[in-house]
Please model this.
Amino acid sequence: MSEAIETIKIKVQRFDPAVDKEPNYQEYTVPYAKGTTVMSALRYIYENLDHSLAYYASCRIGKCAGCHVRVNGNTKLACTTIIEGNVTIEPKKGKVIRDLVVETPPRGEKEGHEEVVPEV
Model:
């Protein structure tokens, strides 16, 4: 007899300004294990459920700070934020290029982003 795999619901804000008039939300069911990060859930969605999802992934260790998203309304780093149940993921504030990817200013210019409180 096989064990049931625990799953969670991830609701992602989707928006392509070239096509959509307004953002919309799409819900995905993903496998859950203790220690699952927002980034690993997004990667699972992209690789297994929806190849059209756009999100930023670079260092994956919290150094570059490029993966800022809002998780349940709070700005977090996707690569280091642990999921502990169903979540809503939205882009950080700014001009959305597509889905969770937001335009960032050129290096050296100040970015008007929200303060991120590190996970402890």
